[in-house]
Prior knowledge:
It is built from six helices and five strands, in the order αααααβββαββ. A hairpin with a 4-residue loop joins strand 4 (151-155) and strand 5. It is of the alpha+beta class. The chain has one domain (4-145). The chain is elongated and about 65 Å long. Helix 1 (4-25) runs antiparallel to helix 2 (30-41), helix 2 (30-41) crosses helix 5 (68-81) and helix 3 runs antiparallel to helix 4 (57-65). The longest helix is centred in the first third of the chain and has 22 residues, at 4-25.
Amino acid sequence: xxxxxxxxxxxxxxxxxxxxxxxxxxxxxxxxxxxxxxxxxxxxxxxxxxxxxxxxxxxxxxxxxxxxxxxxxxxxxxxxxxxxxxxxxxxxxxxxxxxxxxxxxxxxxxxxxxxxxxxxxxxxxxxxxxxxxxxxxxxxxxxxxxxxxxxxxxxxxxxxxxxxxxxxxxxxxxxxxxxxxxxxxxxxxxxxxxx
Length: 195
């Protein structure tokens, strides 16, 4: 069975890669951005095929069309798939900087390269991590009778995305086998996590 929560977590993992891939793959990290946009846009298909929740394709597509950022994800997805990024006005650029770090009197300076990616959206260059966070926030607003996008946490400096199964709260019903609090309905995610 296609579970839309599985796809939501996949989107979160692609978002996490937008931080690490520019360090590892430099300019080729744009592939991860296109993969993020495709996974984000195709959550519509996952919602349609997930019979455990009430949102069908028509409602999900209407939601995407009314969301500027998710609609732009669709343009990125289709533009990268059909080699039409220019026609869709999708512009992604990388910015490379180098920094010399002095580590000691007896050692040579260490040169560190940083690569950042930006997407042009609404006439401004937006860091792809911020863009991805806004996309996830937008999907986080989708109402659900099941009330459940999996909670994801942005953990510290590494920005790894970790699904959280339980949150501790006082005066809440607890799961009998593990004695932990069941997950609460998803509030719009806050990025980065400040906990």
